[in-house]
């Protein structure tokens, strides 16, 4: 008997062996029918086991594929995060180029709530407060600059108006002087000057 053969196969071999030729055929048929039924059951079980094994193999392969895909996603995410971290390390924040009030000036002129002991002991919060204070100061100074620009424009406008008025008055004076000179010339033409002897203011000789 082969090592993997079921005992039913061995019994079938024995039934068909020449040594059992004298056994009652009915008995052989009954035993053979039982053995065949046993073999069919074994075949069904083997097929079921094969299908179950295939299903388990398929499920294990799918699970392995999912695990591999998840691992690939994690590796991709890891590389992405590493690149982002490197970018952050190389990134020079714009605040580093912003000229700020010195720490001493900040402590002197910033609002008290922006320079408490807790803030001064926290470098990150201190920098945020200094930046906020710098922004507020720049906004205040920009507003003051705009007010001064408006005042300058108003003074220039007033100065222009006054300059225009002065120019107008000067033009009027020049016109009056020209008119007076012209009138004097005409008077001199119409009334010749008196001779010296006829001048009543002249003393007799």
Give a written overview of the molecule.
With 205 residues, the chain is mainly alpha-helical. It has 5 helices and no strands. The longest helix has 68 residues, at 123-190. It starts with 6 loop residues before the first helix and ends in a 15-residue tail after the last helix.
Task: Summarize the helices and strands and which ones pair or pack.
Layout: H1 7-15, H2 25-90, H3 103-109, H4 117-120, H5 123-190
Helix pairs in contact: 1-2
Rough outline:
rod-shaped
Number of helices: 5
Question: Span from first to last CA?
Answer: 189 Å
Order of helices and strands: HHHHH
Poorly predicted regions are: none
Mean pLDDT: 81
Largest sheet: none
Assign a percent range to the helix content. Answer: over 70%
Structural class: mainly alpha
Give me some keywords for this one.
single chain, 205 residues, mainly alpha
In short, what is this structure?
The chain is mostly helical and 205 residues long. The chain is built from five helices and no strands.
